[in-house]
Amino acid sequence: MIKQKGILFVLSGPSGVGKGTVRKALFEKDTALQYSISMTTRPIRPGEQEGVDYFYRSKDTFEAMIGDNQLLEHAEYVGNYYGTPRDYVEKTLDEGKDVFLEIEVQGALQVKANFPEGVFIFLSPPSLEELKNRIINRGTETEALVMNRLKAAKDEIELMDAYDYVVVNDKVDHAVEKVQAIVKSEHCKRERVASAYKKLLEVSQS
After folding, report:
1. In whole angstroms, what is the distance from residue 81 CA to residue 56 CA?
2. Are 85 and 104 contained in the same domain?
3. Which amino acids are annotated as binding site, given as ranges?
4. Which residues are known binding-site members for ATP?
């Protein structure tokens, strides 16, 4: 049996489009995917575990990793850094496991710059009106924030060309089925399997 290297799948899209919901539903159906563990400088909280919830590092260590290009992406939020460690992702892929990263659009573009061999999936709302309704239904945003999020969403939708696939999140189950189809399709791509099969031919001919 030919052992394939794993693939990094990056799911991204505007805030409020339902990335977390789709990812959660996907993982309930597809246990072979490995969710990407982030690194953070925030303190560990009760009940959390190193290497399970996050990799916890000091600010100095994190900044040194940024300088050494050891992170596929990073951002600062409320005084703490968050990012995706390159070595964890590469080690998991080398083990033949697919890594799944759910992230905001700007983070996804950072990952693409640092790891272009990943597969980038843009999760799109059926319409901006539907996105507006979803954000309002959260009940956590003021009207001004809703308008800001919609403006940001328009800007992010214009970045769709940077992605390999677009999945419209009209219904969660439909979106999950499309993502699963993308995963299967990517594993059958000629350029991923050709070199391994050619090695088989070389062995059989020797």
Report:
1. 10
2. no
3. 13-20
4. 13-20
